[in-house]
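hiii, so i know i said id send this last week but things got crazy w the move. better late than never?? heres the sequnce for the chain we talked about at the cafe, plus the structure i predicted for it. fair warning i was half asleep when i ran it
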Amino acid sequence: MHKPKLTTITNILFAICLFSVLGTAQAVSLSLIGTSPISIIGYDALPRTTTGTYSTGFSGTVVANQASLITFSYLGSASNYKNSFSFMGNILTKSNLVGDTTKAETVNAGALDFSFSDDQGGSFANGAALTPTLGFAILDGNLSPESGPNFGPFDYVLGFNDSSASDADYDDFVVGVNISAVPLPASLSLMALSLILFTAVASRRRL
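okay and structure toks below
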Protein backbone atom coordinates (compact mmCIF):
# COMPACT_ATOMS: atom_id res chain seq x y z
CA MET A 1 0.00 0.00 0.00
CA HIS A 2 1.22 3.49 -0.86
CA LYS A 3 2.62 5.24 2.21
CA PRO A 4 0.60 8.52 1.96
CA LYS A 5 -2.64 6.52 1.76
CA LEU A 6 -1.60 4.45 4.78
CA THR A 7 -0.89 7.63 6.73
CA THR A 8 -4.24 9.10 5.76
CA ILE A 9 -6.14 5.97 6.76
CA THR A 10 -4.27 5.89 10.06
CA ASN A 11 -5.20 9.52 10.74
CA ILE A 12 -8.85 8.87 9.94
CA LEU A 13 -8.99 5.84 12.25
CA PHE A 14 -7.27 7.80 15.01
CA ALA A 15 -9.71 10.70 14.65
CA ILE A 16 -12.71 8.37 14.68
CA CYS A 17 -11.43 6.65 17.83
CA LEU A 18 -10.78 10.01 19.48
CA PHE A 19 -14.24 11.27 18.60
CA SER A 20 -15.81 8.08 19.96
CA VAL A 21 -13.92 8.36 23.23
CA LEU A 22 -14.90 12.00 23.63
CA GLY A 23 -18.54 11.13 23.14
CA THR A 24 -18.51 8.33 25.68
CA ALA A 25 -19.00 9.23 29.35
CA GLN A 26 -16.42 7.60 31.59
CA ALA A 27 -17.69 5.74 34.64
CA VAL A 28 -17.05 7.69 37.82
CA SER A 29 -17.58 6.74 41.43
CA LEU A 30 -16.90 7.62 45.02
CA SER A 31 -14.83 5.70 47.54
CA LEU A 32 -15.32 5.41 51.29
CA ILE A 33 -12.07 5.70 53.26
CA GLY A 34 -11.65 4.51 56.84
CA THR A 35 -15.07 2.92 57.04
CA SER A 36 -16.63 1.42 60.14
CA PRO A 37 -20.09 -0.23 60.28
CA ILE A 38 -22.91 1.58 62.07
CA SER A 39 -26.16 0.14 63.43
CA ILE A 40 -29.11 2.50 62.99
CA ILE A 41 -32.13 2.36 65.28
CA GLY A 42 -35.27 4.41 64.70
CA TYR A 43 -34.70 5.74 61.17
CA ASP A 44 -38.19 7.06 60.49
CA ALA A 45 -40.45 10.06 59.89
CA LEU A 46 -40.01 12.30 56.85
CA PRO A 47 -36.87 10.72 55.38
CA ARG A 48 -38.45 7.27 55.47
CA THR A 49 -41.30 8.41 53.24
CA THR A 50 -38.84 9.26 50.47
CA THR A 51 -35.97 6.85 51.09
CA GLY A 52 -37.33 3.73 52.70
CA THR A 53 -35.92 2.42 55.98
CA TYR A 54 -32.25 2.10 56.86
CA SER A 55 -30.89 -0.05 59.67
CA THR A 56 -27.17 -0.11 58.87
CA GLY A 57 -24.56 2.17 57.40
CA PHE A 58 -20.90 3.17 57.46
CA SER A 59 -18.90 6.00 58.90
CA GLY A 60 -15.92 7.21 56.90
CA THR A 61 -14.63 9.83 54.50
CA VAL A 62 -16.35 10.22 51.13
CA VAL A 63 -13.73 10.58 48.39
CA ALA A 64 -14.02 11.24 44.65
CA ASN A 65 -11.80 8.86 42.68
CA GLN A 66 -11.29 11.39 39.88
CA ALA A 67 -12.44 14.82 38.78
CA SER A 68 -16.23 14.60 38.89
CA LEU A 69 -19.48 16.56 38.78
CA ILE A 70 -21.34 16.25 42.12
CA THR A 71 -24.91 17.17 43.11
CA PHE A 72 -26.65 16.72 46.47
CA SER A 73 -30.43 16.47 46.91
CA TYR A 74 -32.43 17.15 50.07
CA LEU A 75 -34.42 14.05 51.07
CA GLY A 76 -35.88 15.05 54.42
CA SER A 77 -35.23 15.73 58.10
CA ALA A 78 -36.61 14.07 61.24
CA SER A 79 -35.39 16.43 63.94
CA ASN A 80 -36.61 19.33 66.05
CA TYR A 81 -33.31 21.08 65.40
CA LYS A 82 -32.80 23.39 62.43
CA ASN A 83 -30.26 21.25 60.64
CA SER A 84 -28.52 22.11 57.39
CA PHE A 85 -26.06 20.79 54.82
CA SER A 86 -23.24 22.68 53.09
CA PHE A 87 -21.37 21.68 49.94
CA MET A 88 -18.73 24.06 48.52
CA GLY A 89 -20.78 27.08 49.56
CA ASN A 90 -24.14 25.58 48.52
CA ILE A 91 -26.58 25.30 51.42
CA LEU A 92 -29.59 23.03 51.93
CA THR A 93 -31.86 23.53 54.96
CA LYS A 94 -35.14 22.20 56.35
CA SER A 95 -36.81 25.08 54.52
CA ASN A 96 -35.98 23.38 51.23
CA LEU A 97 -38.49 21.09 49.56
CA VAL A 98 -37.71 17.41 49.29
CA GLY A 99 -35.93 16.98 45.98
CA ASP A 100 -34.24 20.40 45.97
CA THR A 101 -30.62 20.14 44.88
CA THR A 102 -27.38 22.01 45.28
CA LYS A 103 -25.68 23.51 42.27
CA ALA A 104 -23.69 20.86 40.42
CA GLU A 105 -20.04 21.42 41.33
CA THR A 106 -16.89 20.11 39.68
CA VAL A 107 -14.56 18.57 42.23
CA ASN A 108 -11.03 17.22 41.94
CA ALA A 109 -10.04 13.76 43.11
CA GLY A 110 -9.99 13.63 46.90
CA ALA A 111 -12.27 14.11 49.90
CA LEU A 112 -15.50 15.98 49.13
CA ASP A 113 -15.93 19.37 50.80
CA PHE A 114 -19.25 19.06 52.63
CA SER A 115 -20.56 19.25 56.18
CA PHE A 116 -23.72 18.92 58.26
CA SER A 117 -24.72 21.34 61.04
CA ASP A 118 -27.45 21.87 63.62
CA ASP A 119 -28.59 25.03 65.42
CA GLN A 120 -27.17 23.84 68.75
CA GLY A 121 -23.55 24.34 67.75
CA GLY A 122 -23.07 20.86 66.37
CA SER A 123 -21.17 20.61 63.08
CA PHE A 124 -19.62 17.63 61.34
CA ALA A 125 -17.47 17.79 58.22
CA ASN A 126 -16.61 14.99 55.83
CA GLY A 127 -13.46 13.35 57.18
CA ALA A 128 -14.05 14.20 60.85
CA ALA A 129 -14.00 11.48 63.51
CA LEU A 130 -17.45 10.11 64.33
CA THR A 131 -18.78 10.67 67.87
CA PRO A 132 -21.62 8.79 69.60
CA THR A 133 -23.98 11.74 69.20
CA LEU A 134 -22.70 13.60 66.14
CA GLY A 135 -21.79 12.50 62.65
CA PHE A 136 -23.16 11.18 59.40
CA ALA A 137 -23.53 7.72 57.92
CA ILE A 138 -23.20 6.49 54.39
CA LEU A 139 -26.51 4.68 54.51
CA ASP A 140 -26.60 1.02 53.54
CA GLY A 141 -30.09 0.28 52.32
CA ASN A 142 -32.66 0.82 49.59
CA LEU A 143 -34.87 3.61 48.41
CA SER A 144 -38.61 3.05 48.17
CA PRO A 145 -39.79 0.49 47.43
CA GLU A 146 -37.79 -0.82 50.35
CA SER A 147 -37.08 -4.11 48.57
CA GLY A 148 -35.32 -2.29 45.73
CA PRO A 149 -31.74 -3.28 44.84
CA ASN A 150 -30.06 0.12 45.06
CA PHE A 151 -30.41 3.78 45.96
CA GLY A 152 -32.98 4.59 43.27
CA PRO A 153 -32.01 7.76 41.40
CA PHE A 154 -29.04 8.38 43.73
CA ASP A 155 -25.56 6.92 43.77
CA TYR A 156 -25.28 7.25 47.55
CA VAL A 157 -27.46 8.43 50.45
CA LEU A 158 -26.02 10.19 53.52
CA GLY A 159 -27.81 10.58 56.85
CA PHE A 160 -26.84 13.09 59.56
CA ASN A 161 -27.14 12.43 63.29
CA ASP A 162 -27.25 15.81 65.04
CA SER A 163 -25.95 16.68 68.52
CA SER A 164 -29.11 15.55 70.33
CA ALA A 165 -28.06 12.83 72.77
CA SER A 166 -31.46 11.12 72.67
CA ASP A 167 -30.92 8.94 69.61
CA ALA A 168 -28.56 7.70 66.89
CA ASP A 169 -30.96 7.26 64.00
CA TYR A 170 -29.09 9.16 61.26
CA ASP A 171 -32.30 10.63 59.84
CA ASP A 172 -31.85 14.18 61.18
CA PHE A 173 -30.92 15.50 57.73
CA VAL A 174 -30.70 13.19 54.74
CA VAL A 175 -29.20 13.92 51.32
CA GLY A 176 -28.83 11.93 48.13
CA VAL A 177 -25.62 12.11 46.12
CA ASN A 178 -25.28 12.03 42.33
CA ILE A 179 -21.90 11.79 40.63
CA SER A 180 -21.07 12.01 36.92
CA ALA A 181 -18.13 12.61 34.63
CA VAL A 182 -16.94 16.16 34.08
CA PRO A 183 -18.10 17.25 30.60
CA LEU A 184 -15.17 17.49 28.22
CA PRO A 185 -14.59 20.84 26.50
CA ALA A 186 -16.47 21.19 23.23
CA SER A 187 -13.18 22.27 21.63
CA LEU A 188 -11.84 18.72 21.93
CA SER A 189 -14.81 17.27 20.07
CA LEU A 190 -14.46 19.99 17.45
CA MET A 191 -10.77 19.17 17.07
CA ALA A 192 -11.55 15.49 16.50
CA LEU A 193 -14.21 16.34 13.92
CA SER A 194 -11.84 18.74 12.16
CA LEU A 195 -9.16 16.06 11.98
CA ILE A 196 -11.62 13.62 10.40
CA LEU A 197 -12.65 16.19 7.79
CA PHE A 198 -9.07 17.24 7.08
CA THR A 199 -7.81 13.71 6.54
CA ALA A 200 -10.85 12.88 4.39
CA VAL A 201 -10.19 15.88 2.13
CA ALA A 202 -6.48 15.06 1.94
CA SER A 203 -7.31 11.48 0.98
CA ARG A 204 -9.60 12.62 -1.87
CA ARG A 205 -6.88 14.91 -3.25
CA ARG A 206 -4.42 11.98 -3.41
CA LEU A 207 -6.82 9.76 -5.37
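btw Residues 85 and 147 are 28 Å apart (CA to CA). thought thatd interest u
miss u guys!!
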